[in-house]
Amino acid sequence: MSGHVTYAVVGLGSAGSFALRSLARAGHSVVGIEAGGVANDRSAVGGDTRLYRRLYLEGPEYHDLLERALELWGDANRTSPDSFVQCGALSIVEAASEAADTLSRYGERFGIPYRRLDGDELRREYPQHLCGPSEIGFLDLSGGFVRTDVVVRQAVEDARTAGAEVVEEQVLSVESTEAGAQVVTAAGTWQVEKVVVAAGARSGMLLEAVRRHTEPRRLLMTWFQAQEPVAYAPRSFPVFTRETGDHHMYGAPALDGRHVKVSGIVSHQPLEFEAGGYDYGQGPKQEELRTCEAAVAASFAGLHPVPVRSAVYPDLYSADRGFILDWADRHTRIFAATGFSGKGFKMCCALGEHAAQVLSGEAARLPAFALSRFDR
């Protein structure tokens, strides 16, 4: 399939789906191209949920995007009820740590509503976590989780309703000239004025400017059975991150009443795609599962430590773990929205909207996420 439209979006996952929706709702002629099917399980959309944290340890440069995302996730709930569940977000850190100081400063600077729980309060209110005497908690009252497949599929449907064309084809190349850009697929060529490339872990295959500063990595996610489901329901168990001593993990409450997501335990190793550039090994290694079992047994009360479900999902990590939101060509025709480094989904609706606005000239790119930073 081929044609002529004003804009194209390559990759309709986390950011791409919302870029497509924003462009279509603004009345632009746009096509969205997705190789694996909308909301497929072989992308960063897989894994059911992602955490939303407003009290953000990673830095103030993400604040505006997080605030806009909070507005957009609220809008999403009106269309798809319970696609964004604000059950709170609990950050567990060492009391005497830079992380604790950073969270306090962030909350005070931006007026984020939160509760600081001392060790006794943390263990009393959230006994599901087996916390040590030096650990404290920060409960972000605006936090919660996003249902990944629900919001992505709804964004694409919204885009279709607004007039976007959606095709399922694998993109072979994206090139630009002073006059425009062309997107070559296995079925034909699309001639466009500008294009957003939001192909996740596969973005570097299409853009050399991205490939030089990124690496695809494997994110292992695991789920564990709760012995007492009520203790791990959203009303009792906030989403969480834990960065203390030997504990490095994050998770979400049980969506089905029984199976609790606890992930991030093993480091994100490099991922290799198979010939053809799409498929990869989605199964975990046995030693990774044994590491997860030991960590869960030591960290939680009331979870069976053997995972009932596990899968590997791909994401693209930049050299400094910051986002890439920038023009990837000298003609400013190809805008890269990628390199989200394991932390993009919580604000992907805002990322997609921003990419669409830069493409259409309604917004300037964000200097903190420019490609030029890697050359300094």
Automatic annotation (TrEMBL):
Organism, as annotated: Brevibacterium salitolerans
Question: What InterPro entries is this protein classified in?
Answer: FAD-dep_OxRdtase, FAD/NAD-bd_sf, MTOX
Q: Which domain of life is it from?
A: Bacteria
Cofactors, names only: FAD
Report what the protein is called.
Answer: FAD dependent oxidoreductase domain-containing protein
Question: Does the record carry Ligase as a key word?
Answer: no
Which keywords has UniProt assigned to this entry? FAD, Flavoprotein, Oxidoreductase
Stretches assigned to the FAD dependent oxidoreductase domain: 7-357
